[in-house]
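Box 3.1 A note on notation
Throughout this textbook, protein chains are presented in two layers. The first layer is the amino acid sequence; the second is a C-alpha cell string describing backbone geometry. Keep the layers aligned when reading.
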Amino acid sequence: MKLGELLIKAGRITTAQLEETLKGQAIFGGRFGTNLVEMGYLDEHDLAHFLSKKTGIAHASPEQLMDVPPQVTRLIPEEAVRKYQVMPLALNNRKLTVAMTDPTDFATIDEISFLTGYIVVPVITPELRLVCALEKHYNIRRDVRYIRVEGGGRNRARVAQSAAPEPEPPRQAMPAPSRPAPESPPAGNHPPGTPRLNGPLPATAPFSKLAPPVPDDDILELPLLADYECFGDMEKSEPLGAYTQAGSALQREAEKECSVEGILHGLTQAHDRHGIAQLIVDYAARQFDRSALFLLKGGKATGWVAQCGKKTVPKFDLLEIPLADPSVLKVVAESKTYYLGPLPVSHYNGRMIAALGGGNPVNNLLIPLMMMGRVVAILYVEGGTLQLDQRLPELQKLLGKASMAFEILILKNKILLA
C-alpha cells in the first residue's frame, strides 16, 4: 500500500491534503514524507511510524541517529555517505545497522556491504532526520528547506487542514494615479505607458505602480494548449543554394533544440522540476545577458538556477531574499504581475544583482510563474539585443507552458504515490 493511501486509511490526512502535498512535491521537490511535514499535515514521529508500517522495517529514533560513536561513522567514508545518503548507526557481530530513506534499495545495500565488508541491516528514517544526522557527523550541509522545517512546516498549508475553504477576500480596486510621475523616463527600453518604481521600495508597493491590473483570465495558470497553438511557429530561412542545402539543413536541425519549438518539446519530456527550470533559464540565457529563476517558498525567494554571460552562476541556490522586506521580488510576488524597469535602491535588490554579477542595469524584467493561484517562481532577465517589452509576451507564454509541465509532474506523482 502506498504511503498516501495508508495515511488516508488511518485518518491522518484527507484526500485534499494528499493532493496539496503532491502538488507541493512537484513544485518544490523532495520526498513525499518531507513535503507532508513541511505542509504541517504530519510530524516527524508519525512519519517515521507510518514509513515503518508501510515497509515492515524498524525505524531509527532521533537519539540513535544523533548519538553515533565516531568509530562507527568511520566505517563508511564521507564520499559514500554523500553518494548513497545513508547513516551508519551501530556495529554488532559483523552486522552494520544503517539508516536509509529507502531500505528496499537493495543495490545500495549491496554496495555498502561490499565497501565495508559487513552484513548491512537497514532501518528506515525520514529524510528530515537523515540530513540532520549527516550534517552533524559528516559536516554535509543541509539544504535550507530542512533547516526551516526543523522550526515548523509551511504555515500556509496548516490553514488548508480546515474542511471548509476560507472565503476569498474581496478584490479592492486600486485608484488610478492622479498625475504622471514628474520625472522623465530614462533612456532605455522601458515601454511607454508602463508605470515604474523609482527610489526606495515602500513596505508594501501599491499595485498601480506596476503593470496595469491583470484580469483573472490573463493570469498564466495552466493555459489551454489551443491558446498558444502558434507559439512554437518560427520563421525558417531558405537555404542559399544547392551547394549549401545539406549544411543548412543540419544547422536548422541543431538550432531547433535552441528554438521555442525545441524548448516546448523539452518541457514535455522533463522528468523533474529542475529539468523544467533549466530549460527556461537556458532559453532565456540565449537572448539576455542575465537570466535567473527564483523559487518562492516559506516566505522567501530562493535562488534556483541562473546564468550570467551564458555561464551558470555558482552557488546561486544559497541566495535567499525574504519576501517580508522591500524588494522587487516581493512586489512581483504580491501583485502577481510582471515588473519592467530599473531596480529601486534597496538592500535585497542589491543582493540579488550582486549574486548575478553586480552592476546597475537600467532595465529589468521579472515575470511570475503561476500555479494554483499562487506565484511559485519568478523569472528575471536583463540585457540582450531586443527591447524587453517586445519579449514580454513570448516569455509569459513560455512560463504558461512551464506551468503546464509542472502540472504533468503533479499527475505523475499522483499515479506513483497516491
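Residues 151-257 have pLDDT under 50 and may be disordered. The chain is about 40% helix and 15% strand.
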